[in-house]
Design a protein that fits this description.
The protein has about 525 residues and is mainly β. It is about 5% helix and about 30% strand. A hairpin with a 5-residue loop joins strand 14 and strand 15.
């Protein structure tokens, strides 16, 4: 479908709920691919489910981790998927085959992972209570070191739109900007409130188009900055003023997750208290819509579709889809189109559907008709909506995943499989499962070391990472012990109560006639 024709003349943001996505488990996070045709969701049982956005069906299942998946990121071409979990591991997946290519083990749980916006073999990792690290799939690692003035190690890090710089923020309200290739400190600036006091930074998100980025802070204010105003200052601190400030002045809501729209004209923020989504207009800073979810649900994640006015939100393990209300307007196809309430007989003119008008006496000289026109249906022209303004080469991309539907209960008269075909199918499934186990066993695991860094201490519950396919210990019942006479309860005590017979009356009543008074 041509995306240039999808431009609506109305609002470019969703205004109602459009159903949910069933995954069979509790979802914690989700992420669209670059084209918005696939949606990956991480669940609490360690699985990754990939949905087809158009059909709303499940296209791929991947058993990724043994603990909940907390972060997902797609590569630029969509062939690779990066998953991070609190089981201290990161996996790089080949989406088309559903195979795990690499696995990285860290000394602490993972909070966030992100692929490089351009390169598909570089990604950024934010571990818990450790400094972020830039990992290349060729097993090279670069740590982002902070000085004592930079703040603590529990920070948030993100690539900018083109991946040239890395923006980091900590709980002390300071943003440091590093060069993504050399990791040299370029500049830094504080995020302050009305006075000189700083506020903690919770997340940093960059727009898909333009140079704007937003900062979600602990003071319940969403600040929008212009990335072009952040100039290198050789590591010196230089204040930068935000171009927009967004907040809920009535309820003073804390924000769980914020994101830009695909065209960077709107900002969506999810409430940390309940399942409510606030949408602001970037041009004027006005609150244009509030989407209310089910009461009692707690929001976990929010993502906006890259090209369409669609939002996917994760709340209480359920993925909700928000979209626009579509009103049928058939007059858009032809200006003289008329909608009929009842059927009417149509009188066809004599030469209405003729290729050549035989009754036509005078030919128009300016009228030129070409019946045979060569149409090129092989060459795929690049879609401008998918290409950045300064990046022309898109290359091969993965848009859809081919799937084979499974027929569980064939209808009457449907083609039935023979016993030999059933046996061959079972054999193929067994061989495929065996192959998956071999690939999983042969997956290369790399330990990411933090030499020279202080490794935090964690409770024993987090250190005991369960192994996959490990049998659970069986509960052993204690042997039954017969109690002795001293341990037996005392016999019940019998008490005789003198209860009168209810059937026999205890009192007698006499009926007396009262004299009538004369009126």
């Amino acid at each position: 479908m041509n995306l240039e024709l999808l431009e609506s003349f109305g609002n470019s943001y969703p205004d109602e709920a459009d159903g949910i996505l069933e995954s069979g488990s509790m979802s914690l996070t989700c992420a669209f691919n670059r084209h918005g045709s696939l949606l990956a969701a991480g669940s609490n049982d360690g699985r990754i489910i990939i949905f087809d956005v158009i059909t709303r069906g499940i296209a791929r299942h991947m058993h990724a981790h043994v603990h909940p998946v907390c972060s997902l990121s797609w590569s630029r071409n969509g062939f690779k998927l990066l998953s991070g979990s609190i089981d201290w591991t990161i996996s790089v997946w080949e989406v088309l085959k559903g195979e795990c290519l690499y696995r990285y083990r860290f000394p602490s749980p993972i909070l966030r992972v992100q692929f490089h916006p351009i390169e598909s073999d570089v990604f950024l990792v934010c571990p818990m209570r450790l400094c972020p690290v830039v990992v290349k799939i060729s097993c090279t690692q670069k740590h982002i070191d902070f000085d004592e003035e930079g703040g603590e190690q529990n920070i948030f890090a993100s690539f900018d739109r083109l991946g040239n710089r890395i923006f980091t923020g900590n709980s002390k309200g300071k943003i440091l900007v590093f060069d993504s290739s050399s990791l040299d400190l370029l500049t830094s600036f504080p995020v302050t409130t009305g006075s000189s006091t700083t506020t903690g930074i919770k997340s940093i998100e960059f727009a898909r188009k333009g140079s704007n980025f937003l900062v979600n802070s602990s003071d319940r204010i969403i600040r929008v900055y212009d990335g072009d105003l952040v100039k290198p200052t050789n590591g010196e601190t230089k204040p930068v003023e935000p171009v927009q400030k967004l907040q809920d002045l009535v309820n003073r809501t804390q924000w769980k997750k914020c994101c830009f729209s695909g065209d960077a004209e709107f900002i969506c923020a999810g409430s940390a208290r309940q399942h409510d989504l606030y949408i602001w207009d970037m041009a004027h800073g006005n609150l244009v819509k509030i989407l209310h979810g089910q009461k009692g649900e707690h929001l976990l994640d929010v993502v906006w579709h890259p090209n369409r006015p669609i939002i996917a939100s994760v709340a209480s393990g359920v993925i909700s889809v928000w979209a626009q209300t579509h009103a049928e307007n058939w007059s858009a196809y032809a200006p003289n189109f008329k909608e009929l309430d009842e059927n009417e007989e149509y009188d066809e003119r004599e030469s209405e559907f003729d290729i050549e008008d035989e009754d036509k006496s005078i030919e128009d000289k300016d009228e030129s008709r070409e019946d045979n026109i060569n149409v090129d249906v092989v060459t795929c022209d690049p879609i401008k909506a998918y290409i950045d303004s300064d990046i022309e080469d898109e290359g091969d991309v993965l848009t859809f995943i081919p799937i084979t539907p499974d027929v569980e209960d064939p209808e009457d008269g449907f083609w039935a499989m023979t016993e030999e075909e059933v046996a061959n199918l079972e054999k193929m499934k067994h061989e495929e499962k065996k192959r998956e186990n071999e690939l999983q066993a042969n997956t290369k695991t790399v330990d990411v070391n933090y030499e020279g860094h202080e490794i935090p201490e964690y409770p024993p519950e987090l250190l005991a990472v369960p192994k996959k396919n490990e049998p659970k210990p069986k509960a052993v019942k204690p042997p039954a012990v017969k109690p002795t006479k001293d341990q037996l309860p005392p016999p019940p005590i019998e008490i005789a109560l003198d209860i009168p017979d209810i059937d026999k009356p205890t009192h007698t009543f006499t009926e007396e006639k009262m004299p009538l008074e004369e009126t």
